[in-house]
Structures are given as C-alpha cells and as structure tokens.
C-alpha cells in the first residue's frame, strides 16, 4: 500500500501534540469521578491478547455489574455466554487487558488498562449470584491506567439517537449468518426460531 506510515517519527510529525488535558486525565487508579462512570455503565468491551492474536468481547449486565473493590481493583463476573472462552484463554496466558465502558446517553467513554487474573474463589462467586445463579468465574483486574475518552466518536456516530436505530430485520439474522458460513449445512431458520427463548432462559 503506497504512502503508509512506517515509523513513530513519521507518525508524530503527522499529528499535533496532545493537549495538556489529554495527558492530565490519565491516572493509575480509580478516582471517585471515574468510579461514577464505572458504576453507571451497563456495558463494556474487553480486549485481550494471546498466542493466537487479539480478542475483543462484549460484557454487559445491569449498571454496577463491574464492582470497584478498591481504587486499584475491578471485579467482573463472567456471565453465561457461548463457552468459547476466548478472553479467558488469553488472560491465562497473557494478563494484559483493556476495557472500554459505554453508558447509554453519555458521550464520554472510559478506558481502563491493567492486568487480570481469573478467580474461582467460592465466596467471591457467590457474591455475584443473580437469581440463584453464580458465574463460573470472576475476572479480577489490577488497574494500571484509567482515563476518559472525549465524546467526539459518540457524537460523530450519533450512537444514542433512537431515530438512527436500525431495525433488526434490516440485517442478516444469526441463523442466516450460520447458514451462510456453513453453506446451508446449518439449519439457520430453526436456529432463529428458538433463539429468543433460549437467550431469555439462559441469560444468567
């Protein structure tokens, strides 16, 4: 590809220096102001890395599902999913993680970088029980850096504008995608038929 950047020097020459605020906002712990964002967020993206490469997976639950244990520790219950455990496999082999918190209606996002371990301590799992169901594990993150991201990306995308919501029927369904990638060896129509109820009954 022509005209690509191949050095840090070239990259830095292309962009202006970051503003003072962009640098000052990063801290190595969870201050009360950042804690407020974490406790209000019902959704985050978790990025991990391993021998096979990178992974970024969604995590969501009611606001406050990520517990601030102290100003250096976050606890995330691993709720039911598809059992691929890509993120967990990566954490076992490389503890570096990155989080991006999203709050509906809020332009700023919150970014956290740190190191994670996977805990199966029974009292900890029980403390995250919901409707009598406990997570199989809890991701415990030691925070190394925290900072907010300005609202430009959310504003440009108009992400929270309900008038811009796309009807689900306008995009391929999960079953249609599975049928396509398996060249119709997978019964996508049957999958779509039972998916809503299965998701409802296996949410936790």
Automatic annotation (TrEMBL):
Residues 32-150 form the Pyridoxamine 5'-phosphate oxidase N-terminal domain. InterPro entries: Pyridox_Oxase_FMN-dep, Pyridox_Oxase_N, Split_barrel_FMN-bd. This is Pyridoxamine 5'-phosphate oxidase N-terminal domain-containing protein.
